[in-house]
Amino acid sequence: MIVRIMGEGQVQIADGDLDTLNALDSEVEKAIEVGDEAIFRTKLHALLDKVRHVGKALPDDSLEPSELILPPADASIEEVREMLGDSGLIPG
After folding, report:
1. InterPro entries under this entry (predicted)?
2. pTM of the model
3. Which long-range contacts (CB under 8 A, 24 or more apart) does 56-65 make?
4. What residues does 85 pair with on adjacent strands?
5. Helix (H, G, I), strand (E, B), or coil: what is residue 80?
6. Ramachandran angles phi, psi of 48, nearest 5°
7. For the packed helices 37-54 and 18-34, what is the interaxial angle rounded to 10 degrees?
8. Structure confidence at residue 91 as a pLDDT band (50, 70, 90)
9. Greatest CA separation for the chain
10. In this structure, is the dihedral angle defined by the CA atoms of residues 18, 24, 28 and 30, taken in order, positive or negative?
11. For the segment 9-32, what is each residue's pLDDT rounded down to a tens digit?
């Protein structure tokens, strides 16, 4: 799966890493639901850090279509809430 982190670039994520990313995504959603900015920020950074860690960075000039777009690390709760789908930021 090709994932774009807004403002950073694209990484390729192995299917085997999706369960871990979905668990972190659920934590981001919970923080948004209760409106806790501090927990939201911590959980969003944990999700993005994990994507960076498990993902293989694609070259900047790569023209691969992104299957998933994640918010930047400085996104607000409202911005991320608007990006949430029925199954969070990461489907599955």
Report:
1. PspA-assoc_dom
2. 0.92
3. 56/11, 56/12, 57/9, 57/10, 57/11, 58/2, 58/9, 58/10, 58/11, 58/12, 60/9, 62/10, 64/2, 64/10, 65/2
4. 88
5. helix
6. -65, -40
7. 170
8. confident
9. 39
10. positive
11. 999 999 999 999 999 999 999 999
Amino acid identity of 36? D
Structure tokens at 77: 């709760």
In sequence order, what E strands does 32-79 have? Answer: 56-57, 68-70
Tokens of 32: 């948004």
Q: What is the Cα–Cα distance from 35 to 33, expressed in whole angstroms?
A: 6
Instruction: Select from 7, 10, 14 the least CA-distant residue to 71.
Output: 7
